[in-house]
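Observation: inputs received (chain + S-adenosylmethionine).
Thought: call the complex predictor directly.
Action: predict_structure
Action Input:
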Amino acid sequence: MGNEELTYHVPVLLMPSVDGMNIRPDGTYVDVTFGGGGHSREILSRLGDGGQLLGFDQDEDAEQNIVDNPHFTFVRSNFRYLHNFLRYHDIEEVDSILADLGVSSHHFDDSERGFSFRFDGALDMRMNKRAGDTAADIINTYNEERLADLFYLYGELKNSRKLASVIVKARAGQKITTIGEFLEVIKPLFGREREKKELAKVFQALRIEVNQEMEALKEMLYAATEALKPGGRLVVITYHSLEDRMVKNIMRTGNVEGKMEKDFFGNVQTPFRLVNNKVIVPDDAEIERNPRSRSAKLRIAEKK
Ligand SMILES: C[S@@+](CC[C@H](N)C(=O)[O-])C[C@H]1O[C@@H](n2cnc3c(N)ncnc32)[C@H](O)[C@@H]1O
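Observation:
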């Protein structure tokens, strides 16, 4: 059973991000991470005749939050297919695109989804419950080197090699299928003091791999760059350094690697103008109200 009585998700940096989209009542907008619909509802409150908003989410649970509003269309899909769905809906160009990346509170609070080490249950972690490998599939099938790489790359864990090695040894005896079994294997590697922080990193790394988050983000950022009108805004909220680097790079250079392309005169050729040079972060009051906003970073760029 899910924990239905909990709030699905409290939107993060709501006003600065929606203000950053420069909404016009008759414009066309996309929220690629609909979730609990907090940002989408704020966008819709600013739309009038001719205005439209497409809201993407790959998780079918988000459908319970669909807004009954003539200006709104829900798209149950991975945002990596942004380009295809814009074409499907006969939309050639859009005025602004918002992405509030990662998982929602609902994912962490639902004991059955396998995102949180607070609960026991299946090691799943798929945002789209209908597709792809689960975290258990990865833990039980990746070779030691691949496991170590993913913990190092996506969790920035210093003991990634040791971690991979204990997992491979344990699974030779018996498959690891639940969070409880997984914790039993890995917990002895972490001191009590840092245990929660380190476990959060392990779970983040697995979640990124399960959902192919970096690949999906890259594809969406390129599709968004192409879909935006001149003057249109790309507005992105990130929660960890890897996704933030990709977003910063595309906004500065037009590519996710951050390669500077210069013209004959030495000017950097980029499709964007930065709206905020410094990242926008939640203030103390927001962090106190909503501790999950702590790591949020908001970046806004305008298409030239
Ligand atoms: C941080 S939450 C967004 C919360 C939302 N802004 C709100 O106010 O409620 C991220 C949401 O994006 C969805 N999501 C993450 N990656 C996705 C992807 N690649 N394609 C589609 N949806 C994705 C998740 O399922 C989750 O519901």
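Thought: report the result.
Final Answer: The chain has twelve helices and seven strands. The first helix runs from residue 14 to 20.
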